[in-house]
Amino acid sequence: MNGVIIVDKKKGRTSFDEIREIRKKYNIKKVGHAGTLDPMATGVLIILIGDATKLSDYLMDHDKEYIATLKLGQRTDTLDSEGQVIEEKEVPDLSKKNIEEVLFNLLGKSKQIPPMYSAIKVNGRKLYELARKGEEIERKEREIEIYEIKLIKIKEENKKISEIEFKVKCSKGTYIRTLCEDIAKKLGTLRIYERFKKN
Fold first, then answer.
1. Is 38 a catalytic residue?
2. What pLDDT, in 10s, does the model give residues 45-81?
3. Could you identify which of 78, 108, 142, 195 might form a hypothetical disulfide with 83, taking C-beta atoms 3.0 to 4.6 angstroms apart as the criterion?
């Protein structure tokens, strides 16, 4: 059997969970995907079956689009809401205009260091496997490009902006965890991302 299956991945499931289910359902071993999604992420996961696995590199070269929710004022060890809070910082007085200006200034090409909690392999081991053991290694910067980024909505607590939701269209290799951290730093605070969806 050869083909492509588009899966709407649910929160809490890994990309390999989806592959394992497809293998079992269709009784086929040669199954892959075109790009790993975080377990907490939801949205489009492209599953490749049989000879279609040869399309993986081609499909992964395409641009991506995400909707992310960013909570301000905290930082966790995993850079997302599932980790342990390791730092907190008061959120400054922000306005919608402040946030839109920061997002606008992210447009274009820039360098990004992949987070330790990612599926990148170094010497045959995935970074997140090292991170779970408390290990951190040097990672090379990668060039990324932000084509579009737009504020969708903001949430306030005690008359201060505490959470923002934005939509971004970006090049391959862009890490939403790192992008969210960059946004928070430019806003003068910390952050964790609550969730994101790949469109």
1. yes
2. 888 988 888 877 777 777 889 999 998 887 777 767 7
3. 78
Our CA angle for 35, 39, 44, nearest 5°, is 45
What SS3 state is found at 74? strand
User: How far, in Å, CA of 197 to CA of 33, rounded?
Assistant: 17
- Quick check: 127 and 136 in contact, CB under 8 A? no
> Rounded to the nearest 5°, which phi and psi values hold at 5?
-120, 130
For residue 5, which of 46, 33, 35, 42 has the smallest C-alpha distance?
46
- The catalytically annotated residue of 38, 61, 77, 182 is 38
Q: Are 198 and 65 in contact (CB under 8 A)?
A: yes
- Every domain of the chain and the residues it spans: 3-60, 64-198
pTM of the shown model: 0.77
Supply the CATH classification number for the domain 64-198. Answer: 3.30.2350.10
